[in-house]
Amino acid sequence: MKPLIAPSRERFEERAAIMKALAHPSRLMMIHELGHGERCVNELTELVGSDMSTVSKHLLILKKNGIVQDEKRGKQVYYKLRTPCVLNFFNCMESMIYANKSVSQHSAGETAKQKA
Q1: What is the predicted pLDDT for the residue at 62?
Q2: Quick one: pLDDT at residue 104?
Q3: Mean pLDDT of the region 69-97
């Protein structure tokens, strides 16, 4: 078996840049929607509820970080996930949210028992 080599600082910085690109609710909504197939900018603008300029800026951040890719067809620009494995990370986040809620509920129950 090949020994595991620790990633370089540069690799950790690359990972942080991707995490930063994901760190906005509107971008997460768009990624989730793109997980169902490609969408034009107008559809994503309607989904997010922001103006086209703001949505375009969000999409540019996702594109620069290799998360989405675009294709111009006539006057419309369509986006799709370049790296669909990002949806696996969404599943991981859901597990964390569930675990955090379980811990919070358990802690709240323990606190209530202590007060009684």
Answers
A1: 98
A2: 76
A3: 94
User: For strand 39-40 and strand 76-81, is the pairing parallel, antiparallel, or unpaired?
Assistant: antiparallel
Q: Is residue 68 a contact partner of residue 75, using CB atoms and an 8 Å limit?
A: no
In a 13 Å sphere around the CA of 108, the CA atoms on its Cβ side amount to 6
Contact 55, 45 (CB under 8 A): yes
The pTM of this model reads 0.80
Q: Is residue 50 part of a domain?
A: yes
- Domain residues for the domain of 57 are 10-83
CATH number where 19 lies? 1.10.10.10
Residue 109 lies in a domain: no
The type of residue at 90 is F
The number of domains in the chain is 1
